[in-house]
Amino acid sequence: MEKVRVGLVGCGNIGRVHLNAYKNAKNIEVVALCDIDPANLKKTSEMYGIDKVYSSEEEMLKNEQLDAIDVCVWNCNHAKCTIDALNAGLHVLCEKPMATNAKEAQEMADAAKKNNKLLMIAFVMRFMDEGRIAKDFIDNGYIGDIYYSKATYLRRHGAPGGWFNNKKMSAGGPVIDLGVHVIDFTRYLMGRPQVKSVFASVEDKLGNRAHLKTDVGWKPDNASDKDVYNVEDFGIAMIKYENGQTTLLETSYSLNGEDVISKEIYGTKGGMNINGTDLKLYTEINGFLADVSPKLDNYKQSCEHFQAEIEHFADCILTGCECIAPAEDGIEIMKILDAIYESGRTGHEVIIND
Ligand SMILES: NC(=O)c1ccc[n+]([C@@H]2O[C@H](COP(=O)([O-])OP(=O)(O)OC[C@H]3O[C@@H](n4cnc5c(N)ncnc54)[C@H](O)[C@@H]3O)[C@@H](O)[C@H]2O)c1
From the CB of 82, is ligand 1 less than 6 Å away? Predict the structure, then answer.
């Protein structure tokens, strides 16, 4: 097998981002597309010159010789699309969040195990340049023992609109949509510890503010006053891990403050702030406190992060190398997300592992 042959399910926004990444990928190609929305399917087929198109995954699995499926559908359909493909003997790359809850996530992982196929979760922050450099600093001892992290993903006016705001389809708002990225990334840098407990607050104070006339920061492209909006717009959580490490999460779709995407890591020898694409190392040099900002201007990884993600997926299939974003991590993140919502609802700390 020279290139992994993929069927891409879900030809919307992120499906097309993935398709851009496949264009230059060395070891993987998309040979068929599937979407239940005929307009999205047609548009995407024409944009990318892929003429094998299907309006159901079942049809695609029946008619195409595929090695893998790339699942880019609404959150509520991740589990079914993934499990059907695994049971058909295919490997799966599934977008974040892995599922709508930990139970579904576990069923997906069980299907992968039963069929002896790879299930990778598309935790793309792990493949960004800053992410890879931060991991490299940690692995080489510059941070020491990490005991605390802050995971922040705040939008001032950033409810995406459409299905994202409909709880039945998305399973939640910024906690499951944005928080998932930074919880996963900080946990990854902390060495993938098992979660112990979660204490959270989940609020719906501002809604999607579709009435606003001004745009700031991240801009929703299809929000409208007529949208269903029944998800939270703000969430904070203290996440405690079994080894004593702690993460503080802050996330929002609507908030009277700045747009921020920042991941802070605190260890015994140093700390790091990864803010957008800036990476700063807080350390001591020869008895002085020092801030170090690596010069990344001319630093280029072999490719951009979505391409790195899909090429890693293909590498795992072709060479059997260890997957850095396996289903087990997706399940652990879903347990944390479930607990955040439960704690927000009950007002109590949720103990996951005693
Ligand atoms: N990694 C990231 O940074 C990132 C960014 C955006 C979205 N996402 C994730 O990607 C997924 C899709 O988000 P989006 O913004 O592309 O949404 P979207 O609405 O733009 O696209 C989703 C597409 O999936 C199709 N679809 C839904 N169920 C289907 C099914 N059973 N079979 C075939 N097609 C189906 C819809 O018709 C739609 O065209 C979500 O899980 C989202 O959380 C990830």
Answer: no
Q: Whose CA is nearest to atom 3 of ligand 1?
A: 124
Same domain? 148 vs 251: yes
Mean pLDDT of the chain: 94
| Residues 6+ away with beta carbon under 8 Å from 132 | 126, 301
CA distances from 209 to 29, 173, 227, 253, 255 (A): 40, 14, 11, 10, 10
Report residue 80's pLDDT band, with 50, 70 and 90 as the boundaries: very high
**Domain range spanning residue 254?**
126-302+333-351
Asked if residue 311 and residue 289 are part of one domain, the reply reads no
- 169 with 258, same domain? yes
Ligand 1: distance of its center to the CA of 304 in Å? 21
> 0.70 exceeded by the pTM?
yes
What's the DSSP call for residue 93?
Answer: E
Ligand 1 centroid to residue 10 C-alpha, Å:
5
What's the domain count of the chain?
2
